[in-house]
Amino acid sequence: MDCKESQLATFAGGCFWCMVKPFEETPGIIKVVSGYTGGTMVNPTYEDVCFKASGHYEAVQITFDPVIFPYEKLLEIYWQQIDPTNSEGQFFDRGQPYHTAIFYHNQDQHREALKSKKVLEESGRFEDPIVTEILPEATFYPAEEYHQDYHRKNPLRYGAYRQGSGRDAFLKEHWSKEKDLKSKLTKIQYEVTQNKGTEQAFKNEYWDNKKAGIYVDVISGEPLFSSEDKFDSGCGWPSFTKPLQPEMVMEKKDLSHFMLRTEVVSTKTGAHLGHVFNDGPTTGLRYCINSAALRFIPIEDLENEG
């Protein structure tokens, strides 16, 4: 591609060995280079940075196509690779070279970096303050060749380092799907969708909802059922004769509670929705679905919801 179309992004996230792979696996990434930035020494070596207080950070510099992969998406990846609350370094690496920082290359990047940091601070994901710095770009010096693409050259040592440093365990704890869902869903929504729970009949949100609209997956927003196919089955849960599109749900054999039933699962998210029975009108089917697995969008809001 024309180099004029590409941009640079520079991130310090502790040991630069661990900061290459997450970015290079992304479409739109042209090159990822490990190096040193933010210090005063010209052309520093690894020994200068780590043992002679040159003031540099270990960092990666990314050449990317913003049309294919915008800067804000790079920021999302960056935050999910580090402990942004550690002011002393990263995991078992301590000292200036291992501090975290975002080095912005223009005012748009500066604005996006500040915005992403604020979003993270307000998310409640971390109890301690976010200490990652946002700094103007500085001269970037590529590291020695043996540091480049270290994860490919020394995969066993790389894997052992990541695990032994505590980085992987930390990221799993703070960025796992389970944690994300628990922060996004209410207690009953999580219990139903993830643990195949069942809410109370006649005491759930949509069992007697008669408004026109669609019902979407509470996790992904994928459309699942329509009010046109909803009927009063007398069971106390939302009941439908069919899904909006057959491929949006999957059916699985359910032998729990000493019964033979057919479970209904969201194809997109794998969330438990409810069960389907052979006693419905028109189609002969009754999709008995938990309100907690759904979000209702009234017909007048469909356009705004996309």
Q: What can you see in these coordinates?
A:
The protein has 306 residues and is of the alpha+beta class. It has two domains: 3-175, Peptide Methionine Sulfoxide Reductase, Chain A (2-Layer Sandwich), CATH 3.30.1060.10; 196-305, Beta Complex (Metal Binding Protein, Guanine Nucleotide Exchange Factor, Chain A), CATH 2.170.150.20. Helices cover 26% and strands 26% of the residues. The protein contains ten helices and 17 strands. A six-stranded mixed beta sheet has the order 7-6-1-3-2-8, covered by helices on one side. A six-stranded antiparallel beta sheet has the order 11-12-16-15-14-13. Strands 10-9-17 form a three-stranded antiparallel beta sheet, with no helix packed on it. A hairpin with a 7-residue loop joins strand 11 and strand 12 (239-240). Helix 3 (71-79) crosses helix 4 (107-123). The protein starts with 6 loop residues before the first strand and ends with a helix.
List keywords for this structure.
306 residues; Metal Binding Protein, Guanine Nucleotide Exchange Factor, Chain A; alpha+beta; 10 helices; 6-stranded mixed sheet; Peptide Methionine Sulfoxide Reductase, Chain A
Number of strands: 17
Number of helices: 10
Indicate the CATH topology of the largest domain: Peptide Methionine Sulfoxide Reductase, Chain A
Shape: elongated
Q: How widely separated are the two ends?
A: 33 Å
Under the CATH scheme, which architecture of the largest domain would be assigned? 2-Layer Sandwich
CATH superfamily of the largest domain: Peptide methionine sulphoxide reductase MsrA
* Poorly predicted parts: none
**Rg measurement, Å:** 25 Å
H and E string:
EHEHEHEEEHEEHHHHHEEEEEEEEEH
Average pLDDT over all residues: 93
**Total number of domains:** 2
Biggest sheet, spatial arrangement of strands? 7-6-1-3-2-8
